[in-house]
Amino acid sequence: MYGYGRFLRINVTNKTYKIEEIPADWLLMYGGGRGFGIKILYDELPDNCDALGEENKVILCTGVLAGTPIQAVHRWICITKSPLTNGYCRSVGGGTFAAYMRFAGYDCLIIEGKSDKPVYLHITSDGCTFHDASEIWGKNTDVAQDYVVEKLGGKNISTVAIGPAAENGVLYAGVFCGRRSASRCGGGTVLGSKKVKVIAIEAKRSLNLYDPDKVKLLAKEQLEIMRGNRDFQLHREFGTTDGMLSRNTMGVFPTKNFRYGYMHGWEAMSGAEYKKLRIGEAGCYSCSARCGKIHKVTEGPYAGALSEGPEYESYWAMSGTIDSNNIAATILADQLCDDYGLDSISTGVTIGFAYELYEKGIITKEDTDGLELEYGNHQAMIQLIHKIARREGFGDILALGTKRMAEKYGQGTDHYAMHVKGLELAGYEPRALKATGYAYSTSNIGGAHGAGALAFQEWGMPVPRAVDRFDDFGKADIVIFNQNNSCSNEIGVICSFALPWGWNVALYGPMLTAVTGLEEFSDRKFLWQLGERIFNLERAFLNRQGISRKDDTLPKRVQTEPLHTCGMPGEGQMIRHHREFLDEYYKLRGWDENGVPTKEKLEELKLGYVVKDLERARSKNLI
To answer: What global pTM score does this model have?
Structure first.
């Protein structure tokens, strides 16, 4: 079986492990990566289980192409039941961990049970050993990883870790490889509930490729294409730090808790301004993009702040949400989120929600521990990040996310709690990017820009066709295309930044075939159906957790309040026809009117065994 390894099942309750062979029929049914992860999660979790209970599992998956000379495919995925949304967690991370999983011979690490004390795991090709992590419990993510690497000898090791936020039960804590993370949906929080602090893989480079020479030729061809691609060149130069220009001039930069699509003074945070503070760069395994731009603040109250970033989503979340253009504050905020192990998007959006509650008088200084949450006050934002991670004072409420905050404060605050299915929205205004907005609402993980939600067709991408971003209708097929394509891409796992670099459509399938020897992967229709199968299995998992049409919605603000763009395009836009979109989307998906895959669709996708599970969920009134 070329290109694949095995599963490593780790029980942290009784400190045992088991190496398992991958069922042969899974290869062409689920592909690998994200497909393997949801198959394990779906099959092994009971209906509507407690995300922080012993029954939940954390599955770390690598892709089929990881560890090879191919670029932009060395990503790993954290899959679990989300404590933030009570639904599905699929969160993608970078760094070196995916390659080292492949070198050790594992496609998935399945972590189950609950430890009675903090542990770190040392994984080799022979299995797993368990070690006391009490000394690093409470330490920042980088300190914990450095400690374990030193303990293990410092060579041929890659690590992932959680920070204090996960230990303290912040519902949106992530899992970090160095400073790169799988942050969304609270996967780190689940690991924290299991008292797993660090996972270290020790392995030397070892791959089992079907056609190593073909892999090298395809990698060479890929590199030649990338070097001549303008999008790659820009990404190599700026990473995502130049996002302020396009997002603001398009009117899609969410500001003041998604009331505006433009932030005055954004020029102070342009790519050129970030470049002035750049002191280095970093990247994932074997990727020449080196898109992690390292910045250091050298003067002012935040002097000394240092971050491998912030990426666009992070600096948006620490600026637009509170209407502050202080570039130094975004660097410090990003550093703190990485140190504490926080999802910077949910952190920033939750803080932005608190600022609007303060503006409206729903909360006061008595609620906020004396902090004045006035727009532009970046000092208060920094203090709130500390409080969230430590769950101190007002931070204990913010640690629950916007959905639960709105439930606590009532008074119509759910109208402008900016989340989908409990996951805070990303930094793209849905009223001016309607296909993206529709994709937010139907995403299997909630309000994320990943997992196929960001519709590049609204930015001019012609595959399958470019669309007018303001059109209300005719976008259901675009949303489905992107969602299914994301699933098939995450067999690899392809970095989402690499999609515009010009190589993946022609080379991705042949790359999979060269690694595995499975000719079916070179058939685009086969990959498409594989992606559709993965997406539908994820949806069935959501249905079993009680999630259906009622949850496929958007915040009331974007459906009832016109967008203001301060002279940029999109003024007055709203999501006016979401119900009609859902009707068309469900019909094209082959789902019933409640958003549940039909028996006919499941059998078409060779998922007939799922039918009885959904019937059981109906009998329990979950759907």
So the answer is: 0.98
